[in-house]
Write a structure and sequence with these properties.
Number of helices: 16
Low-confidence stretches: none
Mean pLDDT: 94
Radius of gyration: 25 Å
CATH topology of the largest domain: Rossmann fold
Structural class: alpha/beta
CATH architecture of the largest domain: 3-Layer(aba) Sandwich
CATH superfamily of the largest domain: Nitrogenase molybdenum iron protein domain
Helix content: 40-55%
Shape: globular
Largest sheet: 6 strands, parallel
Length: 430
């Protein structure tokens, strides 16, 4: 069911290349189709959006019913249980409190002779959030994308989500969006929604940045519009790595691995352990728990194709595997998890101890669940407040301060053959 790899004798394995190649965001035949959609929306605005919504979602939209109304939001509250609404509010508060600690302030420093330098922070003006619909309707993702933007001070948060056919938009998504402070919601999805946000249409505002997960059409569209606006990241399939020693609970480890394997067939769940006993017990628990899952077929294929139980010599070797794979989610189910933090260089989110289960990060604890995947934790960070902020450099020199350095600046400019640059300094002292 799941691949077993013994790295004690052989320090390499094909699992590393296999994981690196599993990312579904590949250029292919779909690219041409997405390009056509993006260009059509860019050229024809609302009409193109309505055309694609009728074609793909089987919903007829007009400028009158494109935007979710206050009445629709109010009705959504009536369709969502009061307990879930309270949980959404608690999660929103936890996410806000965590992200408020990430806020940075503008700063200035003064030097000799009237030199003032600094950095000015301003929030992005308009942010677009893409929220999947249908079976992949996740109100938690609405909170994770909208709350940091709100904390950053973004003035206008625009959300797009598929219209949902005859059943309409998932009401929990509308409740989460309202609780998170989303200003406008439009009933469109797919590549056409990304293009509408990037270029603007007669009804949909042009945004400065697009965030949020989506299928390959959405991901490719985000790639294509990057430069017209900013984007967060191109997310790949979900993944989890559990590092376990002999003190780990095999039932917990297996449950957490399956929590990611059930996402989709390309998800990856890996156990790295120093204990032969743990390898056998976790394998047995995976088989037991897998049979109880509604999404058994998906999780089973995920474990077979991209799952692994890796046996290593010691914890140092386990850490080497972590840093090489750079997992999206990392659980340290070892006797002293805090002692390993300084050695973990590549991971999206790190969960410490047997009771810090990964779903805490998905829904409730507060840190963002929009995380780098497919090894990109080597250079990407989780979605955070700074993603919704811009920085401007501040430079102020007095005449005396400029006089002290003018010859250096002129020399540098002339060395690069830029006479006008040099002259811009020289004329001030002629």
């Amino acid at each position: 069911m799941i691949q077993f790899i013994d790295l004690r004798a052989n320090k390499d394995s094909d699992i590393f290349n296999k994981l690196a190649s599993r990312n579904q965001i590949e250029y292919g035949d779909i690219q041409d189709r997405v390009s056509d959609i993006v260009n059509n929306v860019k050229k024809n605005g609302d009409n193109a959006v309505f055309e694609y919504t009728a074609l793909f979602d089987k919903v007829e939209l007009t400028s009158d019913n494109l935007k979710v109304s206050p009445d629709e939001i109010e009705k959504a509250y009536g369709k969502v249980g009061k307990e879930l609404i309270e949980v959404i509010k608690k999660a929103r508060n936890n996410i806000a409190k965590f992200h408020e600690k990430q806020l940075e302030k503008s700063w200035f420093t003064t030097g000799e002779d009237g030199v003032i330098l600094g950095q000015l922070y301003n929030p992005i003006e308009v942010v677009g959030i893409y929220t999947p619909g249908g079976t992949a309707a996740y109100p938690s993702s609405v909170l994770m994308n909208a709350v940091p933007a709100k904390v950053a001070g973004v003035k206008r948060i625009v959300m797009v989500t598929p219209p949902g056919g005859t059943d309409g938009i998932n009401p929990a998504i509308l409740v989460a969006a309202n609780e998170a402070g989303v200003d406008e919601i439009y009933k469109i999805g797919g590549a056409q929604a990304i293009a509408a946000l990037a270029f603007g249409t007669e009804s949909i505002p042009k945004v400065d940045k697009i965030v949020g997960p989506g299928n390959i059409y959405v991901a490719l569209a985000k790639r294509m519009v990057y430069g017209y606006c900013d984007i967060d990241m191109i997310a790949g399939p979900s993944e989890i790595m559990v590092v376990a020693d002999e003190t780990a609970n095999p039932k917990y480890a297996a449950a957490d691995m399956l929590s990611q394997a059930e996402h989709d067939a390309l998800a990856s769940a890996i156990l790295v352990t120093t204990s032969e006993k743990i390898t056998e017990e976790v394998k047995r628990e995976l088989e037991i728990q897998l049979n109880k899952l509604p999404r058994k077929e998906i999780a089973e294929k995920s474990l077979k194709d991209f799952g692994a139980i890796i046996l290593v010599d010691d914890i140092d070797s386990a850490v080497d595997v972590v840093n090489r794979i750079a997992p999206e989610h990392l659980e340290l189910c070892v006797s002293e998890p805090f002692s390993l933090i300084s050695y973990i260089k590549n991971a999206g989110a790190i969960f410490l101890g047997n009771y810090s289960s990964e779903p805490l990060g998905d829904y409730y604890a507060g840190p963002n669940h929009v995380l780098p995947t497919s090894g990109t934790a080597r250079f990407f960070s989780p979605l955070n407040v700074s993603e919704f902020m811009k920085k401007s450099s501040i430079i102020s020199y007095s005449k005396k301060a400029l006089q002290q350095v003018k010859d250096d600046v002129i020399k540098f400019a002339e060395a690069e053959g830029l006479k006008a640059h040099a002259n811009a300094i020289r004329v001030r002292f002629e």
